[in-house]
Design goal:
Largest sheet of chain A: 5 strands, mixed
Helix content of chain B: 25-40%
Largest interface: A-B, 33 and 28 residues
CATH architecture of the largest domain in chain A: Roll
Structural class of chain A: alpha+beta
Number of domains of chain B: 3
Radius of gyration of chain B: 18 Å
Strand content of chain B: 25-35%
Oligomer: heterodimer
Distance between the termini of chain A: 44 Å
CATH superfamily of the largest domain in chain A: Beta-grasp domain
CATH topology of the largest domain in chain B: Uridine Diphospho-n-acetylenolpyruvylglucosamine Reductase, domain 3
Number of domains of chain A: 2
Number of helices of chain B: 12
CATH class of the largest domain in chain B: Alpha Beta
Radius of gyration of chain A: 15 Å
CATH class of the largest domain in chain A: Alpha Beta
Distance between the termini of chain B: 48 Å
Order of helices and strands of chain A: EEHEEEHHHH
Chain lengths: 152, 274
């Protein structure tokens, strides 16, 4: 079936099987491999993207369910000239990543969190990121990064 | 993991969805947010040959006052239940419990109707709405009918819904200032409850729903009967596991689950009574 999705401002149409997961569509059909697959069971959050502006887990959504919608991936966060999104900048400045595998999902979840709660407490950030796992256990600096981005 | 092959059709209205399900029979399933169904399909625990997508039925996404109850459209997302001012005012137990479902990403997609129709006894909202004395509205080819929450959960992942019926609305009574508490015990953030308790109390009246204490969500009627007869919270909570038949698993033995139900019920009733 034809599935047409606006990804990072560009309309893409691909002929896919109905069972194609959104994360596969993003990685294998649109060729955007910044979105990672971690647990594949909607636990770890590595595949988090924005669907119509809200963070969701793209391993647990069919591409067909996103047909006609707008999504944003980590590749769509920085400006065209390479200027990082404030959240990416904050992760860089606060050492909010170690191995980096969870980072795209963390950045997408964190920006969605700040959209809903622009002035979060540390507890709000920790609860807001409960759907994202960092197996380096680098949570302290991730929370610090998000709080720093919130204060920009 | 990728689900087995299926055909996908998107419904533009509830009537069309019911008609499509009727055409395809037992092998077809509705999909709303997909956060209960897709994980099962990936594991091949569910293998429908047709998915009828009802995710675009935005007219089934609403929360409104209706006399003595609040009516919630089945397609209302958990995040919208959690943040609803109407529910925070009139049914705060439900708004609070919805905020404990999964994590923010899951709550952006999952729907209250999907959670209840899926009827996983380990999910938060079936037991919570059962404790509140909710009524579910089902729509089928011959019209709509109301099903009391107490008559809805028939067995493991099995409900009173006919194969060609769709859950369209959840009605919860206004709590009218009753005290309440939701206690969820788990080992990791975002996990399902090992045991959970949703409780409310207004004087001698109370309702206690148990999460993950049986193959179905459990209404702890012995607890409410004890409260009604003037028993102490401690004595009432001792009855928490009387209606439950839990199983043991990696996380908890049968005895530990029964213990948790009593402890969490005591905590919940203490908060709901203060």
């Amino acid at each position: 079936m034809e599935v047409s999705i606006n990804i990072n401002g560009t309309q893409q149409t691909h002929d896919v099987e109905p069972r194609t997961l959104l994360v596969q569509y993003i990685r294998e059909h649109a060729g955007l491999t910044g979105t990672n697959i971690g647990c594949d069971t909607s636990s770890c959050g590595a595949c988090s993207i924005h669907l119509n502006g809200e963070a969701v887990k793209s391993c647990t959504i069919l591409a067909a369910q996103a047909d006609g919608e707008e999504i944003k991936t980590i590749e769509g966060m920085a400006d065209a000239d390479g200027t990082l999104h404030p959240m990416q900048q904050a992760f860089m400045e606060n050492h909010g990543l170690q191995c980096g595998y969870c980072t795209p999902g963390m950045v997408m979840a964190a920006t969605s969190l700040l959209d809903e709660n622009p002035n979060p407490s540390e507890e709000d950030v920790r609860l807001g990121l409960e759907g994202n796992l960092c197996r380096c256990t680098g949570y302290h600096n991730i929370v610090k990064s998000v709080l720093a981005a919130a204060s920009v | 993991m990728i689900p087995a092959q299926f055909d996908y059709v998107r419904a533009e209205s509830a009537e069309e969805a019911i008609s499509l399900i009727g055409q395809h029979g037992d092998e077809a399933k509705f999909i709303a947010g997909g956060h209960s169904l897709l994980p099962l399909m990936k594991l091949r625990l569910a293998q429908p040959s047709v998915l009828v997508d009802i995710g675009r039925l935005s007219d089934l996404s609403y929360i409104r006052e209706d006399g003595d109850h609040i009516a919630i459209g089945a397609m209302t997302r958990h995040m919208d239940v959690e943040t609803s001012d109407v529910l925070k005012q009139h049914a705060p137990l439900l708004a609070h419990a919805a905020g404990h479902v999964g994590d923010p990403q899951v709550r952006h997609r999952g729907t209250i109707g999907g959670s209840i129709a899926h009827s996983d006894s380990a999910s938060d909202l079936p037991a919570t709405t059962l404790a509140m004395g909710a009524t579910y509205v089902a729509k089928g080819p011959n019209g709509t009918r109301e099903i009391a929450a107490g008559d809805f959960f028939e067995g493991f992942l099995t409900t009173a819904l006919a194969p060609d019926e769709m859950l369209t609305e959840i009605r919860v009574p206004k709590m009218n200032g009753a005290g309440w508490s939701f206690q969820k015990f788990n080992r990791r953030a975002q996990d399902w409850a090992i045991v959970g308790v949703a409780a409310w109390r207004n004087g001698t009246e109370s309702g206690v729903g148990l999460v993950n204490m049986d193959s179905v969500p459990v209404l702890a009627t012995s607890v409410s009967a004890a409260i009604a007869s003037g028993a102490s919270i401690e004595d009432a909570a001792a009855e928490a596991a009387a209606q439950a038949d839990p199983t043991g698993d990696l996380n908890a033995s049968v005895e530990y689950r029964q213990h948790l139900a009593r402890v969490l019920t005591k905590r919940a009733l203490t908060i709901a009574s203060s």
